[in-house]
Structure prediction request, 426 residues.
Amino acid sequence: MNTTRRTFVKNVAGGISGSLLLSNLFDSSQAFSFPEIGQEIKPDDEQFWKLVREQFPLTHERVYFNNGTIGPSPYVVREAVKAAIDDLDKRGEYGGWEVARTKLAEFVHAKESEISLTHNTTEGINIVAWGLPLKRGDEVILTTHEHVGNALPWLNRAKVDGIVIKTFQPAQTASENLNRINDLLTKKTRVIAIPHITCTIGQVFPAKEISKLGHDKGLFVCFDGAHGPGMTNLNLAEIGCDTYAACSHKWLCGPRGTGFLYVKEELLETLQPKFVGGYTDLGWDLTTGPIEFKGFVPTAHRYDYGTQNAALYIGVASAVDFFFKIGVENIVRRGNSLASTLQQKLLELGDKIEMLTPTEEQSRGLMIGFRLKNIPYDKFGEHASKKGFRIRLVPESHLNSIRVSTHMYNNFDEVLRFVEAVKEVA
Ligand SMILES: Cc1ncc(COP(=O)(O)O)c(C=O)c1O
Prediction:
């Protein structure tokens, strides 16, 4: 363990939660039995969050504001992955990835039997888009702000099977978005398949209300949840959707190439698995007597099959532990506080900027999207990059805008410095 991490453990144990025995805070082997901090940490407790920052190998040479694309992993996750690779290679064995299913279920408030382990969000969306019983003419609702990972699977199903895609332009408030979805409904609507949080401007849709609206009309409600886990304290039982496709490599800060698909228990027999193999079945026989196939396991494990990269999924479990130990709510509040400060400061620039992310609290997450009136987005990108900020430019949906993501490892000073960089050219 390096000095900064030792300091973190010491400070957390001594200063912030003295009563807890936290000396093994990041010892993943003891992670599950270890007490959580269980205490509210203020979003502006810079001393605490500085120590959190030190848990990440992120360079100090620049400011990383692009968690919406990829969330860097903290040391503890990297070490869990490395240790697992070592262990597996030493023993010449495989297996061990199931720990991620257990941890993810706990993290998103779902049953373990409702979690399929995927490699990214797109894979989960494809499982849903191809597995639902849809026929020519059936309508699916998307937004005009889709990521390619949610657009293409549905466009492909439309091309092959003749389903019809309807879209709505996201509005600034939760209630208006519900109206817009409602306005698109026809007798042929079968699925609402929108993002929980858009990649373009970080708009948070009211997932619970949309699920209710959809279910009242007998529809499938299937979220693209790429940004949900870790940006929100995700509670899928409460949201009540049918499926939720997500990744662990953004806001959860897990290893790249890991994700999960939540499939509500009641939907398992409806959502047909198209890719199947090892571990998905209840038994089969091609050798004796009549050919036999006993069907699929009664869980969402039927959607993932074959050998997985156990070390990566062990890393996912470790990322969940990292969140639990700091406190999911603490992390979300911190990111939120940074994002709302950024949005507020940008709004103070008046008509020099065009704010794209809703200001309504429930519709805003940890990504802020905006445009500058007098300078093209890509020119601003160059300026920001020279100033040492890694942001994301958004050509998607013809938005030509700027997106800034804030996570637990960012701080208020970085936000204010970024606003200064905006002012310089605005
Ligand atoms: C809203 C949204 N959906 C889907 C994806 C695709 O995610 P993945 O790379 O995990 O497949 C992304 C990635 O940025 C995204 O932002």
